[in-house]
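Troubleshooting entry. The earlier prediction with NAP gave an output that would not parse, so I re-checked the input for stray whitespace and re-submitted. Clean input:
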Amino acid sequence: MYALITGGTSGIGKDIAINLGKKGYDLILVSRHYGDTDQIKEQVKTNVINLTYDLTSEEECFKLVEESKKYDIEIFINNAGFGDIGYINKTDLRKEINMVKVNDIATLILTKSFLLRFMENNKGKVLIVASAAAFGVAPYMNVYYATKAFAYSLAHGYYRELKDKKSKVSISVLCPGPVKTRFEEVANTKFNIKSLSSQYVGKYTVKKFLKGKFIIVPGLSIKLAHTFSHLVPKRFISKIVRKQASI
Ligand SMILES: NC(=O)c1ccc[n+]([C@@H]2O[C@H](COP(=O)([O-])OP(=O)(O)OC[C@H]3O[C@@H](n4cnc5c(N)ncnc54)[C@H](OP(=O)(O)O)[C@@H]3O)[C@@H](O)[C@H]2O)c1
């Protein structure tokens, strides 16, 4: 039985893959590069397959959906994504457009396609990797926060639709705060607050995900931030959150 993980070759996706592999799932890792695949192969006894796709392309997303039909997939992890930081006149609009494509368009195409496939058999599990960014708004990371709000909102809507249909297919959404991965390098930043390790986040996530928990928030401080985000106006959140990372 396969688990397909986008961005499964690095960071959070890699550690989710390792933990699913240890639970006996064969793994399909989707990314543009081979990345840390060898580290995964060293730690799991199951099959590990790499599929090379660039998820900024809608066409490639649809081709991935087709190619994945060759495999008996029970778990889909929508994890690939990235961020960027900077003042409005320093950030690159092309990079931001690609961020929307990977973080949102690919998330929509792949999540909907896998949910429909799983619903045909009334079996399967989906995880959308959003972020604690989805709880708030932030200057200097505006686009990233907006993309994660989309992913978070999408997960909530599908969750309710599945419940209304009494489906056995489940969806979860992961909302980590800062995690030590390649994220900072790609986003041209350094976190100013303590990061969790991706090993911890991967293990915690797989445990909660396989139990069917809907909103998965690793770490006490981010759990508190989640609660706090329901109580205060967004304009106030944007004032606090501006200090989270260096620009
Ligand atoms: N690190 C954090 O602090 C943090 C916090 C909250 C949420 N998240 C979210 O967690 C997810 C994973 O990020 P990470 O922190 O683990 O970063 P990472 O180490 O940079 O991993 C990102 C993964 O996504 C893949 N990817 C990126 N662009 C892609 C594209 N166009 N097509 C296919 N694959 C692509 C990368 O592979 P290739 O580059 O080889 O394509 C890589 O495997 C992201 O959605 C991120 O927004 C991260």
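This one parsed fine. The pocket of NAP is lined by residues 6-7, 9-13, 31-33, 35, 53-56, 79-83, 102, 129, 131, 176, 178-179, 181-183, 186 (CB under 6 Å).
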